[in-house]
Design goal:
11 strands; globular; 8-stranded mixed sheet; about 280 residues
């Protein structure tokens, strides 16, 4: 049985070789790479929502290079600590699947994973994700309308993706754990110094969300020595700065042959409180 449910009637979905089907007769084709499209047309607010092909490819190259491996390793350690045996795991906003695949592999080695799925709006990203780890289910879907049954998830990941609290409360079982990755104050500070005349620190907050209790906030920091223009551009292309940086600032970055930059994250660890 799939971790996904039908986005039209909420019935459980069964995954076959080429389709997902529900008892009500709704059927959804699997793409060649293996992911499935579970975003109804009335919830699709753009022709091609999510990261475009170039941005997805840049993120795949950069993350596949191991530059953010310390963050992946931290997520794996936390998953191993908090996932029960046979856990149902969901990555909400999985992108190209780097963290999804890492967590799946760690849990699979210990037998702690039963079913794992990832959702994202970006079809180009999911093409990479589905190739990266075929044992994980992937679907085009919104984190604000997760095609997942209520109280069916033991461990929820959310790395730099929208905070859809109502849906996260709905799908997590009482006692389930939510790992929420956000940038720390000085994340990519040196990159911002190149791009902006007056860079600002990211705000760090510990917000007690309704329905969740704090277990921990885990800092992760590493210094990256990016060796060439291509790697620098891949990092820039996978950030929101790509969309809002003036051309003159982009030209300054393009002129760099190397860059030492701080990658700094905070992993907020929450437990779903009983309803």
């Amino acid at each position: 049985m799939s971790l996904f449910c039908c986005p039209l009637c909420a019935a459980p979905l069964t995954r076959n070789e080429k389709t997902y089907v529900c008892p009500g007769g709704h059927s959804f084709d699997r793409a060649r790479e293996g992911y499935v499209h579970l975003l109804p047309a009335n919830r699709k607010h753009a022709k091609d929502p999510g990261d475009d092909k170039a941005m997805a490819a840049a993120r795949n190259r950069f993350l596949s290079g191991g530059w953010y491996a310390p963050l992946q390793e931290a997520l794996c350690r936390l998953a191993l600590t908090h996932a029960p045996a046979g856990a149902a795991v969901l990555d909400a906003g999985c992108g190209e699947g780097y963290y999804t695949a890492g967590v799946y592999a760690a849990l699979a080695r210990t037998g702690q994973v039963g079913r794992m799925a990832g959702v994202d709006l970006s079809k180009p990203s999911l093409r990479w994700a589905a190739r990266r780890e075929r044992a994980v289910e992937f679907a085009v879907a919104s984190v604000y309308h997760l095609p997942v049954a209520g109280a069916s998830v033991d461990l929820l990941l959310n790395c730099f993706s929208p905070l859809a609290l109502d849906e996260f409360r709905r799908v997590l079982r009482p006692g389930g754990v939510y790992l929420y990755v956000v940038p720390a104050a000085r994340h990519l500070w040196e990159l911002k110094e190149v791009l902006y005349d007056h860079p600002y620190l990211n705000k760090e907050e510990n917000i007690p969300y309704e329905g969740f209790s704090y277990l921990d906030v885990v800092p992760v920091e590493t210094v990256l020595d990016l060796p060439d223009r291509d790697t620098i551009q891949d990092l820039f292309s996978m950030t929101p700065y790509r969309w809002k940086t003036p051309r003159a600032s982009v030209a300054r970055l393009e002129g760099l042959d190397r860059l030492r930059v701080t990658a700094s994250f905070r992993v907020h660890v929450f437990r779903r409180t009983p309803v």
